[in-house]
Amino acid sequence: MQKALFFDIDGTILDFKNFIPDSTREALRLLRANGHLTFLCSGRTRAFIQNPRLLALGFDGIVSGCGTAVEYRGKRLFYQRIERELAIHTVETVRSYGFRPILEGWEYLYLDEADFASDIYGRKLIREMGEKLLPIKDCWGEWEISKLSCTTDHADSESCFAALGGYYDLLIHNAEVVEMVPKGFHKGIGIEKVCERLGIDTADTFAFGDSVNDLGMFATAGTAIAMGNGSEAAKTAATYVTGSLYQDGIWNACKYYNLI
Hints:
Radius of gyration: 18 Å
Structural class: alpha/beta
Strand order of the largest sheet: 5-4-3-2-1-12-13-14
Distance between the termini: 12 Å
Strand content: 15-25%
Number of helices: 9
């Protein structure tokens, strides 16, 4: 029976240096050969899913921005954009409490380079995004975004979360990083939209992930698989815990469930 499999990107398919295990490449090839559908399901918005080696793995579709956007075989099916007034209010608010924001959309990401001069992840974005990365200040109020991420070190997180918690679900990765996703959206919403469009029962879906922003898809998918390198929250919520990215985790889980 055909299954639909949804894969987080960072920490699941590839690492911080964009390394993809050969076993993962082969597992994805065999999944397709066996008639299953494969999807990326990422917290990244579409603008930051451009790595040619990642896309060359041949996914049937992409759920991006924590469920705020869905595409299938190159066609956009859904996109939830944050309205201009809320976007401006959000940026002004997070900055007032000491956050450093990265605004994330379908076509572009936005950040002010001065905010991330010594930040490893910020430097990665600046290096990899090229012309798809624009300054927040130079595009004031004209951002096309569906979510944002913020560094929260040395900031008043509690007050900021209280101020914006009515608009966003807050995915707190650690004391220094939070993702802010419009209320009611998560990766599981993207899975539901795919299943509705393709006539797939969510019981016939598998979700692979490693972090707090994967909990929504874990709660939605028929089978939730946490990577061995994942957070305790992800492992606790999972149906099955496989090996790490470096220990052929995706391959081993697909074999365990007789998918390949």
